[in-house]
Amino acid sequence: MKYLLCFLVGVLLTTSLYAQSAGDKRSSFSVHAGPSWYLGQLMGITDRSDAYRSDLRKGVAWDVSYLAQVAGRKLKFGVGALYQGSSYKNTHDTGADKILMHYMAPQVSLTMVKKHYQLQLAGGIGYQFYKDKSKVYGKPRDVSMDKLAGNLALSGEYFLTSHWGASARLNWLASSTETYSVKYHDEKWNVENPKTGIGYFGQLSLVFGLNYHF
Question: Which CATH architecture has domain 27-213?
Answer without folding.
Answer: Beta Barrel (2.40)
